[in-house]
Amino acid sequence: MYKSCIFDLDGTIINTIQSMTHSISLTMGEFGYAPIDEAHTKKFVGDGYRKLVERALLYSGDNELIHYEEALVIYEKTFQENCLYQVKAYDGMPELLKDLKAKGIKLGVLTNKGHDRAVECVESVYGKNFFDQIIGEGNGIKVKPDPAGALLMAERFSLQPSSCLYFGDTNTDMKTGRNAGMDTVGVTWGFRDRQELEAFEPKYIISHPREIQHVFE
Questions:
Q1: Which residues lie closer than 8 Å to 128 by C-beta, 6 or more apart?
Q2: Any stretches that span the bilayer, and where are they (predicted)?
């Protein structure tokens, strides 16, 4: 029986694609580049904002990454102002989380989004202190797929990694769970397709939050 569920943020518990698409497009616009469409933003995110900026610049034609350092500063400021832009919970996720909480399952969020923005985003949708732990990028914790954040969360819950179930929507998430010794759940409503998730052989693949509830019955 799993005693904790640890969730990725973007593309897993909250649909944040509009906020990131809007912010990276505004950033690229500062250098005269065209907006980044949603489809490409979905491909660029998942490995932290530095990789998002790098991938967006390369896609826009800055092959030497001449604007990289400046773009990082601009994106951080822009995203701070727009991180709640059109964010919303995925269908069925609030119900799943409330059910797990009622069963005494420890709930955590582990994300490559900057920690302060992660807390702000999660609390805006689910309220303050709904999750038992939120860990975002920063404070010396290596970004996913390094397992450090997942293992730290298990330690804070006083649980073995094998007692934790890790949810995510990208290959980065599947690697994170595997690297931490946790069973993984690939969710298909996020930013990547089922084929990407299947390649990493998660314990479960679900297309709606209700499909995992039987595990906790």
A1: none
A2: none
Are 97 and 47 in the same domain? Answer: no
Q: Which two tokens stand for residue 197?
A: 């998730």
Distance between CA atoms of residues 216 and 128, nearest Å: 25
pTM above 0.90, yes or no: yes
The residue among 54, 82, 110 that closes a domain is 82
Distance between CA 20 and CA 174 in Å, rounded? 22
Q: By C-alpha distance, which of 101, 102, 31, 92 is closest to 61?
A: 31
20-33: pLDDT as tens digits: 999 999 999 999 99
- In angstroms, the CA 58 to CA 107 distance is 37
Cα 178 to Cα 36: distance, rounded to the nearest angstrom: 32
Among 178, 127, 100, smallest CA distance to 14 is for: 127
Q: How confident is the model over 181-192, as pLDDT tens digits?
A: 999 999 999 999
Residue in the block written with tokens 């102002």? 81
